[in-house]
User: What shape does this take?
Amino acid sequence: QVQLVESGGGLVQAGGSLRLSCAASGRTFSTYAMGWFRQAPGKQRELVASVTSGGTTNYADSTKGRFAISRDNRNNTVVLQMNSLKPEDIGVYYCYVRRVVTPVYTYWGQGTQVTVSS
Assistant: This one.
């Protein structure tokens, strides 16, 4: 059974930093894409950052230069380092792993709250 367990959310002042971690278990994810979405109150879930099995990263325009995503295939973990946080970064952050070959499938974590005070 696949499980994704997130940690690292919390409350931080604007300009501060948080580090989100996601540990995946249940199979080997070295060939899967991994990443983070977030959902702010009243808004749709949006991609924050992703990293392919080969290490190619992709970021939302709003997080470029402030966030950094990395993965450890040995430990099946993905980490999101968030710096210079802004109130608009508030939301529930969801870790995901995605099988990118047929059948394409996405597994989700339970979400972790990030709150930034101004």
The two ends are 40 Å apart (CA to CA). DSSP finds no helices and eleven strands in the chain.
